[in-house]
Amino acid sequence: MVVARSLASMVMAFWFALAIGGVAGFMTHRHVRTRGCVREKTGSMLSGRLDLLEQELPRFEMGLPEPASAEMLDRMEAAVERADLLRRIADGMHDVEALFHMDGRLIWISPSVKGLTGYSPEECAASDDPIALLVHEPDLGFCKGAIRRAAERPGNEVESFEMRLEHREGAVRWVACQWRRMERDGEPVGLRMSAQDVQDRKEAEYRLLETVAELRRSRALSEHYLARSNDERMRLTALLDAIRLGILFMDRDHRALYVNRPALEIWGFRADENLIGVRDVVLQSRVATLLQSPDAYFRHVADVLSGEHDGAAVEVHLKDGRVVTEMSAVVGKGVDGRGLGRVWIYEDVTAQREIAHRLIELAERDPLTDLFNRRRFHEELERVLADASRREFEVGLLLFDLDGFKPINDAFGHQAGDDVLVTIARRVGGIIRRNETFFRLGGDEFAVLVPDADDAGLQELARRIVEGVAALSFEFDGQPASLTASLGIGLFPRHARDGERLVAVADAAMYRAKEGGRNRWVIGEPARSESDRMRSSHDETKTLRRED
Ligand SMILES: Nc1nc2c(ncn2[C@@H]2O[C@H](COP(=O)(O)OP(=O)(O)OP(=O)(O)O)[C@@H](O)[C@H]2O)c(=O)[nH]1
Question: Which residues of 197-222 are buried (b: 16+ CB within 10 A; e: fewer)?
Answer without folding.
Answer: bbbeebeeeeeeeeeeeeeeeeeeee
